[in-house]
Amino acid sequence: MEKMENKKKLVEAITAQEVDFAQWYTDICTKAELVEYSSVKGFVVVRPYGYAIWENIQKNLDTRFKATGHENVAMPMLIPESLLQKEGELVNGFAPEVAWVTMGGSEPLEERLAVRPTSETLFCDHFNHVLHSYRDLPMLYNQWCSVVRWEKSTRPFLRTREFWWQEGHTIHETAEEAMAETEQQLNCYADFCEQDLCMPVVKGRKTEKEKFAGAEATYSIEAMMKDGKALQSGTSHYFGDKFSRAYDVTFAGRDNTLQYPYQTSWGASTRLIGAIIMTHGDDDGLILPPAIAPIQVVIIPVAAHKPGVLEKARELAEGIGKYARVKLDDSDKAPGWKFSQWEMKGVPLRIEVGPRDLEKNQCVLVRRDTREKQFITLDELPTAIPAALDALAKDLYARALENREQRTFSATTMDEVKALAAKKTCFIKTMWCGSLACEEAMKAEAGLSSRNMPFAQEHLADVCPLCGKPATKMVVWGVAY
RNA sequence: CGGGGUGUAGCGCAGUUGGUAGCGCGCUUGGUUCGGGACCAAGAGGCCGUGGGUUCAAAUCCCGUCACUCCGACCA
After folding, report:
1. Is the CB of A6 under 7 A from strand B?
2. What is the crossing angle of helices A436-446 and A414-423, to 10°?
3. Which of residues 383-402 of A touch strand B (CB under 7 A)?
4. What band does A2 get if pLDDT is binned at 50, 70 and 90?
5. Is residue A5's pLDDT more than 80?
6. If you average pLDDT over residues A177-200, what whole number do you get?
7. Most exposed among A142, A281, A391, A472, judged by the fewest C-beta atoms under 10 Å?
8. A7 touches strand B (CB under 7 A)
9. Strand B: which of residues 77-136 in chain A lie with Cβ below 7 A?
10. CA of A327: how far to CAs of A32, A295, A303, A331, in Å?
11. A207 CB closer than 7 A to any strand B atom
12. A59-105, pLDDT tens digit by residue?
């Protein structure tokens, strides 16, 4: 009985996932102190704890980018309208959501300036100036910045009018090289998501309908959230020489003829934080993958006023600090309050030290995901903590993968597709003839959009379930965030 | 952009037929506590989202507007 009441009290702080998943998500965002709504619609304040997660994502990805030769740059945030308009498809794709600057101080501007929704145009303009010879290639650039897109409906991390991201922009001498770059960066995102965010992803190519405006091919990694919806978690585009031609970016080739370079761009954003929340979180709050957790281990002293307890806790913090990100919570809150608070914030491991432990030279080590408690002698900590972090990460991945597998189905007829989609939110794999009409019909009839055409293709049937015509491509369909 | 819901203290909410604002948590100070959200005492904190209107009088009634939120549409 008492345990039930305790449980209830813990849970009432946030809405249960089963009751209302969307509300649960919003609760986590604000109550785990990740974001605060700002005074401008659709814009958020990313609070210290949320930003610390983003910084860890940045560090990790940045290291990966640099390992493959990319360099960071900073582009202006404003784009002259005339520059933006040089590539027709891109303009049309983004026109509805561009914010414009029309005044400089009190003077109207001669030409209005777009707040960047993405920076292809700026990079092209720059490449136009600095590229001369094939000897300058490849140029492998990346920038960390925020962009603005005037979205109609917004949700923290998933879709905000300003968001933080990185955008990689590269130009290459040959199409083959650019295509290899596109694939390399998609794999980079996939590896990061799977290894460090403990989140399995489906790698594949977007359909014509879903591809980036102006790209020749768009590739994505698609993750499945706990509620069965899909979240596009990273994209990589191959542009061919479309932008080069539109922006007149040229170089003198090996044969001394003027040539257009082949281009790529790729991006991942603070949306990844939303992905982490909805992939791993539970009714008690966040569960952070150790690789990006701002705090990996929190130490909670019990009866901190008793002789030796706080001293021992400090000593432990110093020792653990050598191999993990650790925080000692020596505030004067009650231990139970601290337990709940740090669980809400998703800290992977908790250590409790109290008077009873001091006598036995031990502490209590608790995993956030399973709440499993074990007594560990203090000498064992340097091996026990890394092992526990590692085990937790593996289990997070396994659970996320299991969720996806339990919610992924194959179908060969529309009756099957509709029955599956009506039963629960899921991924449905079918063959597809490649026509836009069938893609639109899938949305109209089953409420599903194409997520991507996975690299790991399967042959499920000979024909498209929508039109009955021959089909050779397998598509994953789902409900997207 | 369409439809629903909500705006009253930092958070969650109450406020009846209009009469000038309250509760819980949190916060501050002091004390006792401390192995799953401790307790006592004394305090601080509100232009009732915002702009108009009706009225002797508006948190309450009317109109506008803004924001948040959910469901659609839209969104690489």
Report:
1. yes
2. 40
3. none
4. very low
5. no
6. 98
7. A472
8. no
9. 93-94, 96-97, 117-118
10. 16, 6, 17, 11
11. no
12. 999 999 999 999 999 999 999 999 988 888 888 888 888 888 888 88
Amino acid at A8: K
Architecture of domain A408-478: 2-Layer Sandwich (3.30)
A352 touches strand B (CB under 7 A): yes
- Distance of alpha carbon A204 from alpha carbon A455, whole angstroms: 5
Q: Which nucleotide is nearest to A44 (CA to C1')?
A: B68
For residues A376 and A357, what is the distance between their CA atoms, to the nearest angstrom? 10
Residue A69 has what pLDDT? 98
Distance in angstroms: CA A481, C1' B2: 20
Best CATH choice for the domain A21-280 from the list 3.30.1330.50, 1.20.1260.110, 3.30.930.10, 1.20.1530.20: 3.30.930.10
273-312 of chain A touching strand B, CB 7 A cut-off: 284, 302-305
Nearest nt to A355, CA vs C1'?
B35
On strand B, nucleotides with any atom < 7 Å from a protein CB are 1-2, 33-38, 66-76
Q: At residue A223, what are phi and psi to the nearest 5 degrees?
A: -110, 155
Helix (H, G, I), strand (E, B) or coil at A77: coil
Long-range Cβ pairs for the range A219-223 (8 Å, 24+) = A219/A182, A219/A183, A219/A186, A219/A452, A220/A186, A220/A451, A220/A452, A221/A186, A221/A189, A221/A190, A221/A193, A222/A451, A222/A452, A222/A476, A222/A478, A223/A193, A223/A199, A223/A275, A223/A279
Helices (H), A68-163: 81-84, 88-94, 120-130
**Sequence spans of domains, chain A:** 21-280, 295-391, 408-478
Nucleic strand B under 7 Å from the C-beta of A22: yes
pLDDT tens for A395-424 read 999 999 999 999 999 999 999 999 999 998
- Within residues 416-445 of protein chain A, the ones with CB less than 7 A from nucleic strand B are 443
From residue A37, give the alpha-carbon distance in Å to each of A29, A44, A45, A153, A161.
10, 5, 6, 14, 12
pLDDT for A4 beyond 80: no
Judged by C1' against the alpha carbon of A337, the nearest nucleotide is B37
Q: What is the largest CA-CA distance in chain A?
A: 84
> Which CATH architecture describes the domain A295-391?
3-Layer(aba) Sandwich (3.40)
